[in-house]
Amino acid sequence: MTAVDVLIIGAGPAGLTAATYLARFRRSVLVADGGEPRAAWIPLSHNMPGFPEGIGGDAILTRMRLQAEEYGAQIRPVFVEGLAREGDGFTARLGDVRITARAVLLATGWVDHHPDLPGVEDAIARGLVRICPICDGFEAIGKSIAVIGDGDLGAREAAFVRTYSEQVCLIHVGPPVALTRRDDLKRLGVPVIETTIEQVHIEGDRLIALSWGGKQTSFDAVYSALGTTPECGLAVDLGAALGEDGRLAVDDHQQTSVPGLYAAGDVVRGLNQLTVASAEAAVAATAIHNRFRQAEGMTAD
Question: Per the confidence metrics, is the pTM higher than 0.90?
Fold first, then answer.
C-alpha cells in the first residue's frame, strides 16, 4: 500500500493545475491519468489566455503536465477502479495496487455524445465537427453552421450560435415531440431539418444532411448538441450529492458533500472552459492544503 497526501483522478487541465498547486504546497501528489482528456480534442484554442496565436489541446496538456512534474507531482497512466472511505481519508484501488490518500480531487470530466457518423473523430480533429461554440464560435463567423440535436438542447445551442452567423440550421435527429422550441427558432431565423442521423454524412470538408423531403443541405461547420455524461460514478458510490444537471454539487471551496472529497472541471456544474477548470482546481488545491494545515496545527487561528 502506498500513501500520498492527495490523489487526483484525471489528468486534464483541472487535475494538472491542482497537481502543480499541491506539489508547490509541498504535498505528495499522485495523478491517476485514466485516458485521453477531453481537452485533447481541441484542434486550436484561441481563447486560452496568453496565446493570441492559438494553441492546441495536446500542447496545453503537455505544458501543464511538465509543469506539475517539475515540482514533484507523480502522474501515472492508471485507472482508479474503486474508491472507499478509510478513517478520515480514502483508499483507492488501481488494479492490484491500493493507494491511501488524505484527500481526493476528482477531475474526471464528462463524456460528449458525439454524433454517430463515420469519420467523426477525424472531423473533430479538423474542426469540421465541433463541441464548444464558446471556445471556437468566433472562428465560425459568417459560415454555414449546423447544430445536431435530438431535443431542446439543440435548439438552445442553435440560438447561441446565432451570435456568430445568420446561416444557422438545426438538424433535429430526435422524435418531433422532443423539440418544443420551434417558435423560438423561427423567430431567430433558424430553420429545422428533421431527419435521422443515418441521413447525415461527412464529405471532405463539408457536412451533408438529407431532409425527409429529399432536400440536401451542406454546411461549413457543425456543432454537436447531443448531450454529455458526467464521470462522477466514484463520487456517487461514496454518497456524494449531485446537482440538477447530474454533475457533482460542491461548496465554495470545491468540496463535495463527502468531507475530504473535492471536484473541479467539467464534472462539476458550471461553465465548461479550460480557464474555469483551472480556477476551480486552484481553489480546491488551496482548500485541501489549508485543511491539512489545520489538522496539523499549522494555523494561527
Answer: yes
In a domain, 300, yes or no: no
Tens of each residue's pLDDT in the chain, 301 residues: 599 999 999 999 999 999 999 999 999 999 999 988 889 989 999 999 999 999 999 999 999 999 999 999 999 999 999 999 999 999 999 988 999 999 999 999 999 999 999 999 999 999 999 999 999 999 999 999 999 999 999 999 999 999 999 999 999 999 999 999 999 999 999 999 999 999 999 999 999 998 877 889 999 999 999 999 999 999 999 999 999 989 999 999 999 999 999 999 999 987 889 999 999 999 999 999 999 999 999 999 7
Same domain, 207 and 233: no
Rounded Cα distance between 197 and 207, Å, is 12
Domain membership flag for residue 301? no
Which one-letter amino acid corresponds to residue 145? I
Is residue 187 situated within a structural domain? yes
Of the candidates 3, 4, 6, 2, which has an alpha carbon nearest to the alpha carbon of residue 289?
A: 6
